Amino acid sequence: REIENTEYTYNYFTLNLASQIYLDKKKNLSITIGGYFGNINNENGHITYIVQGQVVADESFKGRYVNGFRDDGGVNQSGFSPFLRSFQKYDYGLIMNMSYLFRITDRQNVFIQLADSYGLQNINKQVFGTTLSNPPERNHTLSFLVGYIFNRSI
Predict the structure, then answer these.
(1) Distance between CA atoms of 18 and 35, rounded to whole angstroms?
(2) Phi-psi region of 131 (alpha: psi -120 to 50; beta: other; left: phi over 0)
(3) Least crowded by CB within 10 Å, which of 2, 28, 65, 66?
(4) 63 near 45, Cβ under 8 Å?
(5) What is the DSSP letter of 70?
(6) Alpha-carbon distances, residue 94 vs 18, 32, 36, 119, 146 (angstroms)
(7) What is the model's pTM?
(8) Taking the CB of residue 93, how many other CB atoms lie within 10 A of it?
(9) What is the CA radius of gyration of the chain?
(10) What is the DSSP string of 99-132?
(11) Which positions of the chain have pLDDT values less than 70?
(12) Residues whose CB is less than 8 angstroms from the CB of residue 81 and which lie 6 or more positions away in sequence, other chains included
């Protein structure tokens, strides 16, 4: 049995537009809800082939593997086009953050934040001139952030 694992890494520029809602009077606990718009600048691929439990190939590539699927989900066609970009250039979706601010002094704060971005756009697109298509792919990112804020007087 052969197993193929293909992963793509995307280089994004993202613009968020969201409202922050404070959940307590001291403005320490807040949630942020809104949307994002992203531009996919480039992508890199990595593929690993495993045969009978042994890795037989492990390499990076520029291009796109495209698969055709049977009704039962098995692959019946596969192709590779070097340097092909079969991804949408733009992405958009929803964002939601939850954060807590620890006040150290009047001018210094530390915050922790859990951020979730969920893409609504299918970033896979039909490969021009073929009947092959890959399943839908959507961006979903979960991040844990820790930050330091220094408020200087102006």
Answers:
(1) 6
(2) alpha
(3) 2
(4) yes
(5) -
(6) 9, 11, 6, 6, 21
(7) 0.67
(8) 19
(9) 21
(10) EEEEE-SSSEEEEEEEEEEEE-S--B-PPTT-S-
(11) 1-2, 65-69, 73, 75, 78-86, 126-135, 153-154
(12) 63, 64, 66, 127
**How far apart are the C-alpha atoms of 87 and 6, rounded to whole Å?**
15
- Residue 37 CA to residue 152 CA, distance in Å, equals 31
Q: Which is nearest to 45 in space by CA: 85, 73, 72, 74?
A: 85
Q: CB under 8 Å, gap of 24 or more: what pairs does 75-83 form?
A: 77/132, 79/130, 79/132, 81/127
Q: Which residues, at least 6 apart from 154, have a Cβ–Cβ distance to it below 8 Å?
A: none
The pairing of strands 2-22 and 140-150 is unpaired
DSSP assignment, residue 25?
Answer: T
| C-alpha to C-alpha distance for 95 and 154, rounded to whole angstroms | 32
Residue type, 129: G
